[in-house]
Amino acid sequence: MNTVELHGVTKSFGRTRALTDVDLTFDRGVTGLLGPNGAGKTTLLRIVATSIAADKGRVSLLGRDPGGSHDDVTAIRRQLGYLPQELGYPGDMTAFGFVEYVAVLKEWNDRQRRLAEVRRVLALVDLAELATKRVTKLSGGQRRRVALAQALIGDPRILVLDEPTTGLDPSQRADLRRTLSVIANDCAVLLSTHQTEDVAALCERVVVLAGGTIRFDGPVADLIATAEGLVWLSDDPAPDALASWRTGTGRHHVVGGTPPLGSVATEPTLEDAYLLMLGADARNVRAPA
């Protein structure tokens, strides 16, 4: 039995179809989720996080039905951590107070155990020294770490992360990667991000979602391999390329299209393969400067 199982999952909002017949199963480890804006990523995460229900299909979390009995839903949520893309904070709460508030909602009723757990997760995200500071006075990156701390309460068996590295500097992103790599030994992590380097650094498996359907599901190395022979370095730009940009060396990194005269094939990255997988949709994805 997989920790998370989705079979034939479909979800619409009014006349807009967000997901169509999505099949996805995963267990311990970090599964990366990539896709352009509007692909259905957040909808998929919210279904796994039990925030919304699918219109059609079957969902099983930890062997239980999130649309089933109150006992099933409660049991799932006690073992699930969710970091949404945006999280509201009461204006007068400290970092410690907010994380403790979430712990209370998760029914950590023993006060001493609850306080110890709040201290533990704040230390995990390197916020112990800022625990008594109001959340509204923290920087964007610090608030993001508060949000991550609440998701880590209770060593969840399922961890759902929507853009967890938003607002983090390179050092903080490296710290987060180290933390998640340890957590993933005993936890099924679903990580949605626009940062392909985070997926390359953390994940063995990647899922590409576009137009509400899964375009790719497999090892990161297999996705990169699909771009072999389709990426070049050139002295000149390539007008018909799927993506092309001038690098810091002065040469142009060319993805897809016809290789310019004098170009040299180069090893593709995950980002290159992702852009090629999206095809025409990739033109709406901003390439690096």
UniProtKB/TrEMBL annotation:
Pfam family, one: ABC_tran
The keyword Nucleotide-binding appears for this protein: yes
SUPFAM superfamilies documented for this protein: P-loop containing nucleoside triphosphate hydrolases
Single annotated GO MF: ATP hydrolysis activity
Keyword Membrane assigned: no
Coiled coil (residue ranges): none
InterPro entries noted in UniProt: AAA+_ATPase, ABC_transporter-like_ATP-bd, ABC_transporter-like_CS, P-loop_NTPase
Key words of the record: ATP-binding, Nucleotide-binding, Transport
Recorded superkingdom: Bacteria
ABC transporter domain sequence ranges: 4-236
Family listed: Belongs to the ABC transporter superfamily.
PANTHER family, per database record: ABC TRANSPORTER, ATP-BINDING PROTEIN (PTHR43335)
Full protein name: ABC-2 type transport system ATP-binding protein
Organism encoding this protein: Nocardioides ginsengisegetis
